[in-house]
Amino acid sequence: MKRLTYIDWMRGLACVLMFQTHCYDSWLSPEARQSRLFVWSRLGGTLPAPLFLFLAGISVALVTERSREKGMARDAIARQGMLRGAEIFGLGILFRLQEFVLGYPHSPWTDLFRVDILNMLGISMMLMGAVCWLAGKGSPAEARARSLVAAIAAAAAVALATPLVWSTARPKFLPWPLESYINGVHVFGQPQPWLFPLFPWVAFAFAGLTVGLWMFTETAKKLDAKNFVLLGIAGAAICGASVLLDGSRFHIFGAYDYWHTSPNFFLMRCGILLVILLFAYWWCRWGLPEHIFSPLAQLGKTSLLVYWVHIEFVYGRLSILPKGRCGIAKASCGLAAIFLAMLGLSILRTRWKQRAESPGGARLQGVPAS
């Protein structure tokens, strides 16, 4: 399937936002963490995970709809998507095992059961595959309409239930490794906002699935580029609705925590994602990436690889700077070094993959893609 540049560009943007969040969080001294830069860094850090999940939803929709149009059986389509999700989930488990081994003996064994973004990406893809299978009977248009409704319902249900499962309706009867997948409680007795449980994170994947399915409707196809303008306007309107709802007194969903569990913050981030989608499409169709090399689009092609590798050089034993002891200037230089190193790694991986897929690269045909 042909890669879409604006999707890669958005993944690359998520990578850069992730780099800066992790680098400043790991390296800045306590004094530097009081700066305005750190506040803005943390705010930017609220976007990478939603971006990755949102784009995973769009990708699942694109693969599903193109497979439906080719006449592929719904069982085969669902199996393909769910197996890919299971693969990502397995990689998430492997990543946790790697971090435990590299951090031994200081890393606690409980970290093996920590719910990270790869775990949630895998689970989200499996759930989306199941939903598309359940709604996949009939013609492609009928299946698309049912899948669209199901995706919207799933995103709304998860967003609305999140405050409850984090507070008054916590499934405390479950062992903590299982409850962690529901609300990120881990071993701390209370849900942790830095983890990635089903509630609320899977809702962003279903939001992306909704957008991806919408792109295949006849209305969206007729609108062509105007469809992205429509999505951007909808995103701005959703952000406005989030602000209005947050300012109202109508909060009925458990304990109200705007920045972590509120459906209003979910709306805000979804609105921002739609605005970013509009900008990414415009920029990649008429801006510089159309004519010259785009570092963000390049990073987006190998987002899993650069995510995996950079963690050890920022948080692990191989950290390129002393953790918690750097000023803003030194940490910023480290961030630049991480960006350039990951960009170089991405370019090398892409070229290696191209050699494997070229007629003269038969000896590399078994190399898996990132």
Folded structure, characterized:
It contains 14 helices and no strands. The chain has one domain. It starts with a helix and ends in a 13-residue tail after the last helix. The chain has about 375 residues and is mainly α. The radius of gyration is 21 Å and the shape is globular. It has helices spanning about 5-25, 35-45, 50-70, 75-105, 115-135, 140-165, 175-185, 200-215, 220-225, 225-245, 265-285, 295-300, 305-315, 330-355.
Annotate the secondary structure layout.
Blueprint: H1 5-27, H2 36-44, H3 48-69, H4 74-103, H5 117-134, H6 140-165, H7 176-183, H8 198-214, H9 218-223, H10 225-247, H11 263-286, H12 295-301, H13 303-314, H14 328-357
Helix pairs in contact: 1-2, 1-3, 1-11, 1-12, 1-13, 1-14, 3-4, 3-5, 3-8, 4-5, 5-6, 5-8, 6-8, 10-11, 12-14, 13-14
